[in-house]
Amino acid sequence: MTEEQKRIPVNNSKIKMAIQTGIPLTITTYTLPHDIEVYMTDVLTAFLTELAQKQMVEFLTYCLIELVTNAKKANTKRVYFEEKHLDLTNEDDYVLGMKTFKEDTISRINYYLDLQKNKGLYVKLILQVRNNKIRLEVRNNAVLTFFEYKRIHDKISRAQQYTSVNEALTQIIDDTEGAGLGLIIMILMLKKIGLTEENYQVLTTDTETITRIILPLNEKTQSAIEFLSGEFAKIIDELPQFPKNIAAVNKLLDDPESKLSDIAMHISNDVSLTAELLRLVNSAAFAMSSSCKSIFDAVRLVGLRGIRNLLISIGSLDALAAQEDEVKEKIWSHAYQVAFYSYNLARNLCVGKKEIIEDAYVCGLLHDMGKIIFQTAHPGLMQNLKVKCAAAGISDSIFELLVAGVNHGEIGALIAEKWNFPEVIISVIRYHHDCEAAPQEYRTLTYLVCLADMMVHYGNLEIEYEQIDPNVLKHFQLTDKTKFEDVIMKLKQAFSNK
Q1: Alpha-carbon distance 395 to 337, whole Å?
Q2: pLDDT at 141 over 50
Q3: So what's the pLDDT on residue 47?
Q4: How would you write the chain as a 3-class SS string?
Q5: Whole-model pTM above 0.85?
Q6: Distance CA 226, CA 221 (A)
Q7: Which of 86, 161, 193, 245 could bridge to 81 as Cys pair (CB 3.0-4.6 Å)?
Q8: What is the mean pLDDT of the chain?
Q9: How far is 158 from 197, CA to CA, in rounded Å?
């Protein structure tokens, strides 16, 4: 079998989805065999190519190999010191152990790799793009000692003194740990492309050591995305208008002087709207204890806020329901499932938080409005946008990135603002892939919709558990994978039975 045949295939569809949604790609290994190292570089290359950042491939590949190799060596050091009955945190033991570490581990590397695998010591690569920044992160569950942390930062400080790689190579370097030449070269490469040591971070937690490189997309790509988003914003007025009958009802709902009887009567006068509203209220998604037979019943059971949200759902479906195609059908199918999950998660995880429960369904349904818009927009508008891209020198790959979903949260929020949606819905649409940036008052709901979205993707085998934002899982006490999967199983079964 040739080297090429041995390569682990790269799943490009998962890479594309991770880029579109801003979720991280993760690869975990315990021994870092050659085929996994090659696979990591192949995934990185595909990731950067999809982002139209090929110019970063060589530099970040070097960084990747340097960081994962260092992480593996740190894990090996743990089992080596333990076997030698030496204390890593003791300076004398540390010096003594490092005198023989390199020679001993090279001569018996498979033995020590097996030891660290049996102890569950891992090396994890994380790739993510968010807010026009690329994050390359390597984690290992061997916490840095004081001496290791000091050595790393000494090397970073030393790198600041050099002006070139050649200058670094001419310096006298000790041989105990490779002297960190690779790290020094990496810092010098960062400087060469106009970045600083701040783009390289070394962090330690109670359980992990984290090395992180944060790089902005190149100026050309950032400018192109900003230009495209701006041009799309200009043509928002040419997109479908929100249905006038529903807009009128929402205006009444927002008026504190409106009487409940007037609102119910106004809705009842619209036969098709009444039928659709009652159909939604009586659907299995809401699991009402009793059947609604009139708008008055619906208001009593769902509440005015719930009615408003359902009307927004109906109006959005109406405005964006152009001729069906396979892509659009897939997006809407996902939206319905996320809405169902969001509402039912809210009822179980946000007990007593009435507004979150009432807003969960509509926010789940419309979270991907930015993607839906691109599928709904008149072909002439999209062609016009493409012509403008060509005139501005923007490549088809960047145009396709935007159409596929990059920045879809912001674009969806712009549409929601145009249609005068409540701030809570606008906020969830805008931040559902960047929950920490959401306003504090809407963060729990944003977390909830993000969780529902990730659960649907996970249930469809499109993402791994490790790709889900740990802050979201922690917020809802779902950090146990078995418990997480049990919730998904119940939701999936309920959705299929509705």
Answers
A1: 34
A2: yes
A3: 94
A4: CCHHHHCCCCCHHHHHHHHHHCCCEEEEECCCCHHHHHHHHHHHHHHHHHCCCHHHHHHHHHHHHHHHHHHHHHHHHHHHHHHCCCCCCCHHHHHHHHHHHHHHHHHCHHHHHHHHHHCCCCEEEEEEEECCEEEEEEEECCCCCHHHHHHHHHHHHHHHHCCCHHHHHCCCCCCCCHHHHHHHHHHHHHHHCCCCHHHEEEEECCCCEEEEEEEECCHHHHHHHHHHHHHHHHCHHHCCCCCHHHHHHHHHHHCCCCCHHHHHHHHHCCHHHHHHHHHHHCCCCCCCCCCCCCHHHHHHHHHHHHHHHHHHHHHHHHHCCCCCCHHHHHHHHHHHHHHHHHHHHHHHHCCCCHHHHHHHHHHHHHCCHHHHHHHHCCHHHHHHHHHHHHHCCCCHHHHHHHHHCCCHHHHHHHHHHHCCCCHHHHHHHHHCCCHHHCCHHHHHHHHHHHHHHHHHHHHCCCCCHHHCCHHHHHHCCCCCHHHHHHHHHHHHHHHHHC
A5: no
A6: 9
A7: 86
A8: 83
A9: 11
